[in-house]
């Protein structure tokens, strides 16, 4: 008889992979270490494959383990979604929705949407991950994110995900108040200054880099920030320049520390998309949250 993987083995495997140790996983699962080790051993024997490298300070996934993890984590997320689907269809409007947001979306339309959704469904937990699309791909693939709203530009993901354009945002060049670049009217006049940008692997900033390269107006980016907030802080408190959403000039938290430079060149707009896995199975309340994001985007664009 062919080996049948059991759910408790999948849970054990995924938690050990996430924690990087038997000890850490046993605490998270409230299982004894011997019982957890036995589940992993039975799983490896049944699959006839080594899933972990055992080391003195923990474990790491083998190539086979990495492959199995992609499937196993998705199975657990689909099971969670199925359980929440049933509860919600029975009128138990609880559970959890996991979403990803680009930093600009988090600062603009997200607060109003989430506040309204929470008032309507106070028993539903919403987990929000902030970042560019490139940092969320694995979570989307594995079902750990139900959807993201982010920029997207010519990538290899078309066959995996669906893309629904929701809105566009204008970007601009910013500096701190009192910066010597104030008064500049072209990008060419700014090329000798120090620049900082969010990671160039992000969709919009990749598009922007290609455009500026074509025009021979590429700034020398000396500092790459992996977070949007780090980029804003660096601009507001130093002589670095950056390209950020135009709305940052009116942001209640950061606007007073930023000055927009009105250069003659028009920067490309950033298109933001609702991005989901093609085979995603949504719980009943997820479409409700998506609808509210669509409406809020309509208000912002009108």
Automatic annotation (TrEMBL):
Gene Ontology cellular component terms for the protein in this record: cytosol
Annotated keywords: DNA-binding, Transcription, Transcription regulation
Pfam families: HTH_1, LysR_substrate
HTH lysR-type domain boundaries: 5-62
Signal peptide: none
SUPFAM superfamilies the record matches: Periplasmic binding protein-like II, Winged helix' DNA-binding domain
GO molecular function, one term: DNA binding
Similarity comment text for this entry: Belongs to the LysR transcriptional regulatory family.
UniProt protein name: LysR family transcriptional regulator
The organism's taxonomic lineage, starting at the top: Bacteria, Pseudomonadati, Pseudomonadota, Gammaproteobacteria, Enterobacterales
């Amino acid at each position: 008889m062919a080996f049948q993987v059991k759910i408790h083995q999948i849970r054990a495997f995924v938690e050990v992979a996430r924690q990087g140790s038997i000890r850490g996983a046993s605490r998270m699962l409230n299982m004894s270490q011997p019982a957890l080790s036995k589940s992993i051993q039975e799983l490896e024997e049944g699959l006839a494959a080594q899933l972990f490298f055992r080391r003195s300070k923990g474990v790491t996934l083998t190539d086979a383990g990495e492959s199995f993890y992609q499937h196993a984590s998705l199975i657990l997320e689909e099971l969670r979604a199925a359980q929440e689907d049933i509860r919600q269809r029975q009128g138990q409007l609880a559970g959890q929705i996991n979403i990803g947001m680009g930093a600009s979306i988090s600062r603009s339309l997200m607060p109003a949407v989430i506040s309204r959704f929470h008032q309507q469904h106070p028993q539903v937990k919403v987990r929000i991950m902030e970042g560019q699309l490139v940092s969320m791909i694995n979570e989307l693939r594995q079902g750990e994110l139900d959807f993201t709203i982010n920029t997207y530009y010519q990538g290899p993901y078309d066959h995996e995900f669906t893309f629904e354009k929701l809105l566009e945002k204008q970007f601009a060049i910013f500096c701190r108040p009192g910066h010597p670049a104030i008064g500049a009217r072209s990008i060419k006049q700014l090329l000798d200054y120090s620049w900082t940008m969010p990671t160039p692997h992000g969709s919009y900033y990749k598009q922007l880099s290609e455009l500026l390269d074509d025009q021979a107006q590429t700034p020398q980016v000396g500092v790459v920030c992996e977070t949007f907030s780090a980029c804003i802080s660096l601009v507001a408190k130093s002589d670095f320049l950056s390209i950020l959403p135009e709305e940052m000039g009116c942001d209640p938290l950061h606007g007073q520390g930023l000055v927009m430079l009105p250069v003659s060149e028009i920067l490309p707009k950033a298109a933001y998309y609702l991005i989901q896995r093609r085979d995603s199975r949504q719980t009943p309340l997820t479409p409700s949250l998506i609808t509210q994001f669509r409406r809020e985007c309509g208000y912002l664009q009108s």
